[in-house]
Specification:
The protein is of the alpha+beta class and 681 residues long. The chain is built from 17 helices and 7 strands. It has helices at 7-72, 78-98, 105-130, 135-173, 177-209, 215-233, 240-266, 269-284, 286-310, 312-361, 374-446, 448-474, 479-517, 527-538, 563-581, 615-618, 638-649; strands at 523-526, 546-553, 558-561, 587-596, 601-608, 653-660, 665-674. The protein has a 5-stranded mixed sheet with strand order 2-4-5-7-6, covered by helices on one side. Strands 1-3 form a two-stranded antiparallel ribbon. Strand 6 and strand 7 form a beta hairpin. Helix 10 crosses helix 11 and helix 11 (374-446) crosses helix 13 (479-517). It is flat. The two termini are 77 Å apart. One of its GO terms (molecular function) is protein histidine kinase activity. It is an enzyme of class 2 (transferase). Residues 389-430 form a coiled coil.
């Protein structure tokens, strides 16, 4: 028996060796940290704060420059922000003085130059930019110009053009040559020149805001010429309406001239240009100079830091030698530890893992070699585990054959059940989607007419209101006009109200049917109303035909059942009558009657006078996939679904009678369902 060794003792030796290396390295780093702290204290106390303060002053000057630039671009709030940046600059300068950060004469000289130049730059900003130019005046001037354009100039042009068009129409219809020569043609010429001058005056205001030095003179000259043409046209217009338009033109003209002069007094673009020129000169001179001085001050501070760091180079070289020596010892020790651990720990663990993996894969005759230590105990337990697995495998083999037989039978039953469920779900889904498609088409078609009437009436009503308001504005409204407008408005509103109420009723009906047909919720409902709502959703299919649908019988029958599936039954019967009963015919009649046969049952008769069903087909109508329209819109499932719903979910019965006789042809379905449907499982 080999001597037992301990893995724990070997790991403790490794731990002691690592701990000695950590202690030595800690001593070396502590010595280096002390020397770095003692040498860099002055750098942290003076040089770094000075460099940070210099960076703060550079940032403040750039922000001040940005404030001035954005102020000139129209941001009035930049003036207040500029004051904050001035305060930042002063605080940075005062911080340098309070903490005595200037350590040599060169720094002191640079700081004094920066302070003097900062004051000069601030004075230029205040006196030649912020005091000379006000973005608010420019904005107010632009508002005046926009207001003149929208409320005065455009209406003035429109009115003058209207007068010119009236004169042109009068000239075209006039047969008096003397009037054409002395009145109409001169008036047209004067009006057109007045329109040109109004446009020139608008252009003059726009050019003034764009700093055109001749814009103001041009505006004044255009206003004088406009007035000359106005005085020439005034004697030619003698009608009351013409005199009223001339008075409005004169008022708009005077407003345009007065507000234009007010704009000239409020805003002078030359002041803005002067401020821009000052800003550009500062960028090329003072701002460039102060950035250079601040850069020199920051560079001087950096040079001081470099000198301090250079003194650390010797300490760094000294500690490097110590660390390199310790690293060499550490590498030698770690290599020895790794080699020993590989032989005594890693290889046995890898062999154990490989053996366990072989056991997992099914091997049961593995020979395990191991040392006499803690890992050896694990190997012994694995050997015992191998024996237990062998016994367990024998039991599994016996169970496997029986289990395979059971699983085979189960899989066959499962596949058959899944096929049946898929077929059932697909059939139900297809029929529901078909019904919902018909419902959507019904909604679109039925509400189109009342909505279209309402839109037409509202458009006409809007036109009549505009005509009436135009007469009211001109003072031409008579009592007869007022009475006619009132009568037409009341009539239009009544028609619109009837149409919108009709659309609302249709939407309410279609909404309830859609909810019912998209679910199988059970509730109490009025049988007559539900069938009527279903018919409203499908009647659009026969709009182009002369088919008649009648719903008669007891209108107060309440039943506790499933309105959705019942609607599916009515829809399928209706589609069956249209597709098959009235095939090839433009006329036909469907009659639906409702009657209570006793206190617990109700009867629904669905009859059509179509061409009837052949006798040899009657017995097959409710069979699945039976149809005479295969490939032409028929699936052969509609009547089978009707039969399943009536006899299943609704708990009732359905029967069929049909005739193809010439004097009495047609088909009748008789449905008997209980007033209270049976409870679902």
């Amino acid at each position: 028996m080999t001597k037992r060794t301990s893995i724990l003792k070997r790991l403790n030796r490794v731990f002691y060796f690592i701990m000695i290396l950590v202690i030595v390295n800690t001593a070396v780093f502590s010595f280096t940290s002390y020397q770095i702290q003692s040498i860099s204290s002055s750098t942290i106390q003076y040089d770094f704060p000075l460099e940070a303060a210099s960076a703060k002053m550079i940032s403040a000057h750039k922000s001040m420059q940005s404030n001035a630039a954005e102020y000139l671009l129209g941001d009035y709030q930049q003036k207040a922000i500029y004051r904050d940046n001035i305060e930042r600059l002063n605080q940075a300068q005062q911080f340098i003085l309070d903490n005595e950060l200037l350590q040599n004469p060169q720094q002191v000289e640079l700081f004094n130059q920066i302070s003097e130049l900062s004051q000069a730059i601030n004075q230029i900003y205040i006196e030649q930019i912020f005091s000379q130019y006000n973005p608010g005046d420019e904005s107010a001037a632009e508002n005046i110009a926009i207001n003149l354009l929208n409320t005065v100039a455009i209406p003035l042009e429109t009115l003058i053009e209207s007068r010119a068009n009236d004169e042109i129409e009068g000239a075209m219809t006039s047969s008096d040559e003397n009037e054409l020569r002395n009145d109409d043609i001169p008036a047209i010429s004067y009006y057109l020149r007045m329109v040109d001058k109004v446009g020139d005056m608008q252009n003059g205001l726009s050019r003034y805001l764009l700093n055109d030095p001749h814009a103001k003179t041009s505006f004044e000259q255009d206003s004088k010429e406009f007035l000359q043409w106005f005085e020439l046209v005034s004697p030619l217009e003698q009608d009351v309406d013409e005199q009223q338009d001339l008075a409005i033109i004169r008022h708009h003209y005077q407003t345009l001239v007065d507000d234009g002069n007010r704009l000239f007094q409020l805003y002078n673009p030359q002041q803005y240009q002067n401020a821009i020129q000052t800003f550009k000169q500062m960028e090329q001179q003072q701002l460039s100079q102060i950035e250079n001085l601040l850069g020199q001050l920051s560079q001087n501070s950096q040079d001081e830091v470099i000198d301090q760091l250079a003194s650390l180079s010797y300490i760094n070289n000294l500690t490097f030698g110590l660390i390199a020596t310790m690293t060499l010892f550490a590498l030698i020790g770690l290599f020895s530890i790794q080699r020993h651990a590989r032989i005594t720990i890693y290889k046995p663990i890898r062999a154990l893992a490989h053996a366990v993996d072989r056991l997992r894969q099914g091997e049961r005759n593995i020979e395990l070699k191991h040392n006499n230590d803690e890992l050896g105990d694990v190997f012994v337990n694995v050997e015992h585990f191998q024996q237990d697995l062998q016994a367990l495998d024998d039991l599994r083999e016996q169970e496997k054959a029986y289990k395979q037989q059971l699983e085979s039978e189960r899989d066959k039953l499962k596949i058959a059940l899944e096929d049946l469920n898929l077929a059932k779900d697909k059939l139900v889904t297809n029929e529901k989607m078909a019904s919902l498609g018909a419902l959507v088409a019904g909604v679109s078609h039925e509400i189109n007419t009342p909505i279209g009437i309402a839109v037409t009436i509202s458009s006409t009503f809007e036109s009549r209101i505009k005509e009436f308001m135009a007469k009211a504005s001109s003072g031409e409204v008579t009592m007869e006009d007022l009475e006619q407008f009132e009568a037409e408005s009341l009539e239009g509103l009544e028609i619109m109200l009837r149409s919108l109420n009709k659309a609302a009723e249709l939407i309410h009906s279609f909404k309830r049917v859609a909810i019912d047909q998209s679910s199988e919720v059970r509730r109490e409902f009025n049988l007559f109303e539900v069938i009527n709502e279903v018919l409203n959703t499908v009647k659009h299919q026969i709009k182009t035909k002369q088919y008649v649908v009648n719903l008669n019988g007891d209108q107060d029958v309440l039943i506790d059942s499933y309105p959705g599936p019942l609607g599916q039954v009515i829809t399928n019967l209706f589609n069956n009558a249209v597709l098959h009963g009235f095939d090839g015919s433009n006329t036909g009649e469907i009659n639906i009657s409702i009657s209570k046969t006793c206190s617990k049952w109700v009867q629904i008769i669905f009859a059509d006078n179509g061409k009837g069903i052949p006798k040899d087909h009657v017995a097959k109508v409710f069979d699945p996939f039976f149809t005479t329209k295969m490939g032409k819109g028929g699936s052969g499932l509609g009547m089978n679904i009707v039969y399943n719903i009536v006899s299943g979910m609704l708990g009732g019965e359905i029967s069929l009678s049909s005739s193809q006789d010439a004097d009495a042809h047609g088909t009748q379905f008789t449905i008997n369902i209980p007033l209270q449907a049976p409870q679902g499982e």
